[in-house]
Amino acid sequence: MSKCNVTLSGFFAFIITATLLGIAAFRPTNQKNDFELTEKGRKIIDERLVLPIKQKFKFKMSKHESFSRCPSGTSFFVNDYPTNDNPYFTGKVSHYKACKGIQMCDFRLSGDESQLEVWDENKKQFTSPEKWLAKANMPSDKKLKNNADNDHSQKAEGRN
């Protein structure tokens, strides 16, 4: 390789490295720990919603299902993080078995992770997990298709 090619290669490597470092250094960050759900929030959702759902509907997995390539069991997923317009973590609890997921409920957790609420489809508002669980039924496939695209993050309390 000639000196010119080496110099050009070094120059381009320097430019690429400087650009990537500049992008990383000046990337905007959120004020509140990047709005990640903390261990406290995960524990609240698990203890007040996921575990009671497993118990109520008697979800159990065989050893074969737990080693599947598909997701298995009951778990939650956070869809949205708190913003100025919507101060809640919002998400869904689903139960997976044999590659088929059943959406059990939509929930929201306050930004300070102190208040958990579940969307009550009948009342069209958020309610406590305990009240929701007392009336909850196993969702049907037809009901899931009709409610799959609903966004309940701002429907209650006039947040539309």
Report on the architecture of this protein.
The protein is an alpha+beta fold and 160 residues long. The chain has 2 domains: 1-30; 37-149. It is 38% helix and 23% strand. The chain is built from 5 helices and 5 strands. The chain has helices at residues 3-25, 39-57, 63-66, 129-135, 141-147; strands at residues 73-80, 88-97, 100-110, 116-120, 125-127. A 5-stranded antiparallel sheet has the order 1-2-3-4-5. Strand 4 and strand 5 (125-127) form a beta hairpin. It is elongated. It starts with a helix and ends in a 13-residue tail after the last helix.
Please identify the structural class as seen in this structure. alpha+beta
Give the radius of gyration. 23 Å
Tell me the distance between the termini: 64 Å
Main β-sheet, spatial strand arrangement: 1-2-3-4-5
What's the rounded overall pLDDT mean?
Answer: 76
The biggest sheet amounts to:
5 strands, antiparallel
Unreliable segments of 5+ consecutive residues: 29-33, 141-160
How many strand elements? Answer: 5
The secondary-structure element order is HHHEEEEEHH
**Helix amount, in percent?**
25-40%
- Outline type: elongated
The tally of domains stands at: 2
How much of the residues is beta strand, in percent?
A: 15-25%
Q: How many distinct helices?
A: 5
